[in-house]
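Let us work through a complete example step by step.
Step 1: write down the sequence.
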Amino acid sequence: MPHNLLVTAPPPEVRPHGSERPLGPDDPGLVGGYALLGRLGEGGQGVVYLGRDSAGELVTVKLLRGGSAATTRARARFVKEAAAARQVTGRHTARVLDADVTGDRPYIVSEFVEGPSLQHVVADGGPLPAPRLRKVALRTAGALAAIHRAGIVHRDFKPGNVLLGPDGAKVIDFGIAQMADATPLTTGPIGTPAYMAPEQIEDEPVGPPADVFAWGATMVYTATGRPPFGTGSNAAVMRRVTSRRPDLGDLDGPLRELAARCLDKNPAARPTARQLVRALRDDMLPEPAPRPTAIPRYRWRMMVALAGVVAAGFLLGVLI
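Step 2: predict the structure and record it as tokens.
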């Protein structure tokens, strides 16, 4: 399982067609036969462009920052992203159409999803009504099931990586996805703090349950307009993720119970993405997973730290 990950700046927020920024003087006009029309977003790894293929269809083109001058590590991550994304198939994920990771300008071409992100929709219009919320929940759970079926861990599932297109929600951005048996290239936790699982924060092995945790947090945001562990500095949010119960707000019904199970601190107690799909489709909650008897390493750390504080207080009282 991938671990030792790095907290990163948010990946590019892809804009709907018509809101892309014009190309700058240093932007190429053509990459691998794809005409670039404007900038859709920019992140630490690369720039995302709106493009057009030879048939006139709109596509998304992600170009590695630095091109041939990119570091070996950056190029290796880009190669890994392309390999991971190609293995994911499903109606609810943006399809990878083409890639060239060996040339002077490595790029990945994927399906362009016409529509705003879930993050923008909720931020601008408030929580989704129950019928639409259920559809988004089912489609995104299906997307995660497809991702996990391909042996991939997304590792940054969040409202900004869900686009609401004409045919429903689709999950995008495999920029920090990894194969389940991949060797990490970075140190420290990767992801977006408000949607990161405790094991990501505490440098524990990270697998599909981390995506399920992020799904639960995303559903809380979609239903209430705020993430379950609040906002603020990265350190404050991550501390709440590892030590406090989630605030589910006024989320109700079966989805509340599902989200609560997904946000369990222990990865082994969470349902799988496939179980989420069945539960949402059949209106039946999955059987609770057996509570593991082993205490996760991050829990041991918290217990040891607390014991140290108690012992120090007792010693101070004796001395006084």
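Step 3: interpret the result. The chain has a mean pLDDT of 81.
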